[in-house]
Amino acid sequence: MPISSNCSTICRTRRGCAQINRVRSQILAALNWGIDREYLDTNPAAAIKKRKIEASRDRVLTDDELRAIWRAADGLPDPSRSLVKAWILTGQRRDEVRCMGWSEVDLTRAVRTLPAARNKGKREHEIPLAPAIAALLDGLRRRGLPVFTVDGAKPYAGQKRLKAILDRESGVAGWTFHDFRRTASTGMAALHVPQDAIDRVLNHAKGTLAGTYNRHQYSDEKRRALEAWAERVAFIVGEARDAANEVDLRATA
What we know:
Elements: H1 2-10, H2 14-36, H3 63-74, H4 80-90, H5 94-98, E1 105-106, E2 111-114, E3 125-128, H6 131-138, H7 159-170, H8 178-190, H9 195-202, H10 208-213, H11 219-237
Antiparallel strand pairs: 1-2, 2-3
Helix pairs in contact: 3-7, 4-6, 4-8, 8-9, 9-11
């Protein structure tokens, strides 16, 4: 079968394997529909095995690694420099940051709104902008509609080369851009940010009942969490004004 023979080539990443398994399920369902209505005698796709999905990663960057990558980014021109820092400071998904448009950014309110059409969860997501990320965005030259762009027309696309440069200049190995997101989550937890606030920052899907009945946006909680994380990053990379950077949010959440 063509699908089976192509799977080993396509299935190089966890995302690729998951996509193949979803396609397989749809094909099986469609052909089973044909069997139920006696258009087919057997399901020709029944022998296609479900692909094994790579175990989830658990890499969290150490303070030294995060500092090395941040300083390596400092040696790059924009938009590369600012894109790396935006990934670190916001903890959002890689492409949801990379493809950010200026229409989504409100610097007056210090909020970025990710539209439902570009959100993995298919819902609008408000991301409060800590002073560090707001200042970073405010200082960027506006070349076009995308925030992070080289030619002013398309979002930044040089991720492979960017990663190679950061690897070389930072000396950090065995990491991915997605590790910024996990590191931000872990860092906020270490600052005593409640898990529910972290989940809201990361835009993790909630259960059906919680999503249906709880319409609170958690704006204040998310802002406190992201500001605490940005202050922690500043301390780690040596840009903090005050070394006393331990923030306990349990009483205010």
